[in-house]
Here is the input.
Amino acid sequence: MPLVNFTAREITCKLVYYGPGRCGKTTNLQYIHGRVPEARRGRMVSLATQSDRTLFFDFLPIELGVISGFTTRFQLYTVPGQVYYNATRRLVLQGADGVVFVVDSQARRFDENVESFQNLQENLLEQGVDIRQLPLVLQYNKQDLPPDLVLSAPELDEAFNFRSVPSLPADALHGTGVFETLKALSTVVLQRLAARPPTL
Amino acid sequence: MTDPFASFVADPANQAALSAARMVAETPRMHYLLLLVGTRGSGKTHLLRAIRDRLAAAEPPRTAELVGLVRLAEHVQAKGLGDAGLALRERLLRADVVLFDDLDVIERQLPVQSFVFDVIESRLAAGLATVIATGKPLGRLTGLDARLARRLRDASAVDLALPGAPARAAILARRIAEVGCPVAPDLAATLAELEFASVKEYLGALNRILVVQQTTPKPISVEDALALLGLEREPAPAGVPAAPAPMAEGGGEFDAFLTEVMANVSQQFDHWRGRLREAVSYWQGQGVKTRRLEQALLADSTGDPEPIVAAFGHDAGELLRLGAEARVIAPDLAGAEIFRDPDQLVAARHLVQEARARRAPLSAPLPDLTLARLGVGAANRVALEALAVVVAEPGVRHNPLVLVGPSGVGKTHLLHGLGNALMAGGLSPVACLSAHSFLGELAAQRSPEETAQWRARYQWVAGFLLDDVHLLTGETRAQAELLQIYAALEEGGRPMAFASARPLSELAGFDHRLLTRFQGGTVVDVAAPDRDVRLAVIRALLAETTAADDVGLIDYLAGRPADSVRSVQGMVHRVLAEAEAERMVPSVALARETLEAVEAKPIRRDRKPAAPTSGILSPGMGIVRSREKMILQWPSPADRLLPEFG
Here is the structure.
């Protein structure tokens, strides 16, 4: 649930980009980083290997300013996709307000997508979080690749979107669908502000 | 029509404000309070006008009211708000969007701030958008009304700063194009690099150059233009980073995202606040205090506001119903503050319950037993004088008044007469009952709650008169209740009177607290009726009969021995009944025959029983004779028939 600090009048949302290795999570953040005015973005922390693989995680803080009297911040994280960094993924998932599951649309990566999606559910369960209760958006990345290499959005919906969550085709490298994905997730996350029981 | 926002040159320094302003212009009827914070000349007014013009051009046209607070403040200082203020308020409440410019100029101007606050509140309650521009950040505004400051803290705030050099150059180039004057090609860019405090000052500098330029067909060189301004071109130092570029391509994506987030957050918080404000506004209109809702508003929580609003509405509704009932059943409670505060609901319920209890029917004085109809004599003159004092100063003197005298001397009449006199003097209600009724009513109360309600009836009366108080001897519970009633009435300074057939000193088994209170009042003895009293009673009873003026009869009756008023009344009633039965006019003879014959009976009862006789009653003689005598003197049947059947 988004952290609403009524004393400090702050709203902080932690959004995590999850998915198999090389699916485009960091690319999403890089694109966003490039489009957010300098005054509103923090330093993007990225720990990567020499071959540009995310070693630990990426972190991009975004200041959205004062909205309805609340200083609103989004903190965007990615997890390392490689299977052997599961401990890091669990750590990053802790306290997540919403998850973008980035699907690599290439047909040959289908099994890795499935494995990563299952891994997401397992890691959430370990933290006592039911994936059905967590704001989730599916992003079908790399839809710009030749059609014979990728699965279409309906096909991927069939495989992954059995809960009818928002799903968007994307080309993170060129920015297509990147902000749409972020908007979709932020909408679901912020709507949960209303789920907070009233306190007097 | 061209887009009014098109003339606003976007820059990273003002992009968020531009996005927010567009959002307001596109969704005007939205529960929204937007604060544009920017230094002088940063483009706030430009954005406000763009919102207004966009709305005016919408289909169907929308109304946007742009209020310059400088002018409003001047008007208020000169003339006060008055009718013009009311008219403006009405207009602002009808508008789709209200745009207040220059909030910082009304620092320490509380009347104007109050007006602005009222408009904002009313519009938020109605779910309408308001945009406010200020030259100072909220934290630096001084002398701000606390309510307005608190409301503005809930606003969505977006900052505007002086745009960067490229944006300034674009603004200047646009002005040059508007004037249509030939100038040096790099004039706009050069001016934009200079340091001025606001865009207005950049435009002012350009205007000075353009005025000169319009006098000559030859474009003025940059150097000459700078000289006109008293400046020289400074070469850009090496290594200085270039001015920030205008919005990167695709920056609109972030704006759209930001707009979406603002709308979402506002929807959550402002819906919550709006619903509560709406409820506050409604219930304040009903005259109900809304502290609980205001606290909820301050708590700034999110979630479904309906349970809070519904719970408050339930309480406030009940409170209003209680208040309405109180107005009817207890005018002294009408308008009481307690019926305006839902936090006092429990106390209000209790108060109305008491009012209901005290409104329950009471034993009132019998209307026939007035002091005017009481026979006055030496026996009751002191008591009557005491009663007159009580009537004149109820609760002040002779409180309590205790009448002591044997049964039938007129104590009950005196109490009821006192009660009627008090009511005639405006006291209401006055309870007048016997101790017997008091005991019966108390016995009928089945629970402590019922007893409390019953007690409350008497604790609220304007006067309390209890007859035959000696009957409470040994009645511990009744005495305890009477003591509580006594305490409440004494505290309220309400008149009390008691009557006892036994002297107070003989009331054994009486609670000493009660007894000492009786003894501390005015104790008056009422004696057996003297001749004057008897005469007055008899005259009153014969007043409506044919014997009203029969002095002999009145004198005869008054001379008869009587130990109480009741026995005098009994005598008169017997004579009148006999006269009615015999179809005769009441007279001394009839009275003597009636009363003295009755008197004779007890004498006969005292005699020894007569010897057994035949039991034959001699007709017409009323005496018993022996059988032998009767037979001897028996008349012939013919003689008998005449007196017996004739």
User: Anything to note?
Assistant: The CA atoms of residues 105 and 150 of chain A lie 5 Å apart.
